[in-house]
Amino acid sequence: MVLEKIDYNFFLLMIYTIVCILLVAVMYPYPIQEGESTLLMILIYITISVYSVVLILAQYETFKSLVFWLTFLFLVVFFIIIYFFFTNSEHVKIFWVPFFILISLLAVAGILVFFDIPQRFCKEIRITELYFQSHFWF
Q1: What 3-state class would DSSP assign to 34?
Q2: What is the percent of the chain where pLDDT is above 90?
Q3: What residues contact residue 47 under an 8 Å CB cut-off, 6+ apart?
Q4: What does residue 36 show for φ and ψ, rounded to 5 degrees?
Q5: How many Å from the N-terminal Cα to the C-terminal Cα in the chain?
Q6: Distance CA 137, CA 113 (A)
């Protein structure tokens, strides 16, 4: 039980760290000044704040679905805002096209693993199952 919570917390940490890295990659070359701080700093503070709330809610078993949907909604809104309001055509060619290809490949691999596709066809031979399973993720 404790290891599952630690695993889930590190999963959330990974997601929000990747969001912060994405923010820096997209917005650092073109800083937008808002008072004394840049818009990049404000968005990173918002991301850290949402992560703090999600981390607190993730400690309780009853809020697990709320944590998932809150994180999913945050990511969707955040990517839409960044993609439509802060990127130019150069960013789309250099960053967003490979990013969407990576996300689609991970989604296909996640669907295949979720439905146990390698295990269904390789029940007799465990080595073949592990080989196919590892090639979905790496």
Answers
A1: strand
A2: 16
A3: 16, 19, 20, 23, 78
A4: -85, -20
A5: 28
A6: 9
**What are the phi and psi torsion angles at 34 (to 5°)?**
-125, 90
pLDDT computed for residue 135 by the predictor: 58
Query: For residue 18, is pLDDT > 60?
Result: yes
58 burial (CB, 10 Å; 0-12 / 13-18 / 19+) is buried
Domain boundaries, the chain: 1-87, 89-138
Q: Which residues lie closer than 8 Å to 83 by C-beta, 6 or more apart?
A: 96
Structure-block tokens of residue 8? 């889930």
Token pair recorded at residue 18: 């990747």
Amino acid at residue number 29: P
CA dist 11 and 33 (Å) reads 32
